[in-house]
Amino acid sequence: MEGSSLTKTVVMLVLLLATLTTLALGQSIRGGGGGTRVGFYRSTCRNVESIVQSAVRTAVQANPTIAPGLLRMFFHDCFVNGCDASILINGAATEKSAPPNGFLRGFEVIDSAKSQLETTCPGVVSCADIVALAARDSVVLAGGRSWPVPLGRRDGLVSRASDTANLPAFNDPMTVQIQKFADKGLNIQDLVILVGGHTIGTAACALFSYRLYNFSNTNAPDPDINQAFLPQLRALCPNGGNGLRRVALDTGSVNSFGNSFYEELEEWAGSN
After folding, report:
1. Does some domain include residue 271?
2. Is 79 in the same domain as 110?
3. Residue 46 β-bridge partners
4. Rounded CA gap, 226 and 26, in Å?
5. Which of 87, 113, 216, 220 has the most CB atoms around it within 10 Å of its CB?
6. Which of 137, 166, 195 is the last residue of a domain?
C-alpha cells in the first residue's frame, strides 16, 4: 500500500467515524434519532462542544490511553442498537457488564462531562451526544483530523448484555466479521477502514497469547505471525504470564492517530 493510499485510507477512516455518528449505526438503528444535525444545541447549550472537549482533554493529558478507550466505547455503543449511550447503563445484565465490554475505559470522562453540562445546561444534552463528541475529541487529541458531529441523539433506556453478541470479536473468523458488518449496512471496505481505529490503543495479552504458543491446539504459534515479530510478542506476553498486561496494537503509534497501523499490518507486525 503506497503512501498516498495510506493517507487516503486514514482520511476515509475519519470520514467513516463521522458517518457512524449519524448513518448506518446512528439513524437507521433504533436509538440514533433521525433528527440529528450540526448545531443542534446552538440555542439551548451553545458551549456543549467546548465543555466536552475540555473534559476529554483533561483526561487524555493525564492518561493518553483514555483516547482509544473513548473511541472504542463509541464503536461498542453504536454497534449494539445504535448510538444511544446504552453502553453507560449499569446493571448485572446490561451491555456494560457483558464480556465484550469488560475492558472498556473512559466512563469517568463521560460522567465528568455530563456533570459539567448539567451545571451549565441542566437536562439538555444527552449522554449519547457526549459519547459521540468524546470519540471525535479523542481522535483529534491523538493527532487525527476533526469532523463536525451532528447532535440530537436520544438516550436509550434499554441495555441488554445479550445484544452484545453481534459485536465483532477478536477471535471471529473473517467470514463472521464480514457478516456482522453487513448486518449493519457496512461493507468489507468499511470493515478494513474501521479496523484502522486500532492505530491507537492496547490489547490485553489474554486476548491473543493463544496465538503465540498454542494456536488451534497445535502447541505451536500461529503460522501467520511474522516470525521476526514473534519473539518480541512472546517477551511482552510470556506463556502463563499476566494476561491483563497491555500491549500496543500498533507499535508505531500507540498514542498517535495515523497510518502506521496499516503499514505494520503489511509487514505482519501488528498485535491485533
Report:
1. no
2. yes
3. none
4. 38
5. 87
6. 166
Q: Are residues 149 and 219 in the same domain?
A: no
Q: What is the pLDDT of residue 266?
A: 72
Q: Bigger pLDDT: 217 or 270?
A: 217
pLDDT above 90: residue 260:
no
Instruction: Look at residue 213 and tell me if it is in a domain.
Output: yes
Grid cell listed for 152: 440530537
Binding residues for heme b: 198
Query: What is the rounded distance in angstroms from the CA atom of residue 68 to the CA atom of residue 59?
Result: 12
Residue numbering of the annotated binding site: 77, 80, 82, 84, 86, 95, 168, 198-199, 250
Cα–Cα distance between 265 and 261 in angstroms, integer?
6
Please answer whether residues 209 and 239 qualify as being in contact, where contact means their C-beta atoms are separated by less than 8 angstroms: yes
- Domain span at residue 187? 174-266
Residues annotated as catalytic are 76
Residue 117 in domain: yes
pTM of the complete model: 0.82
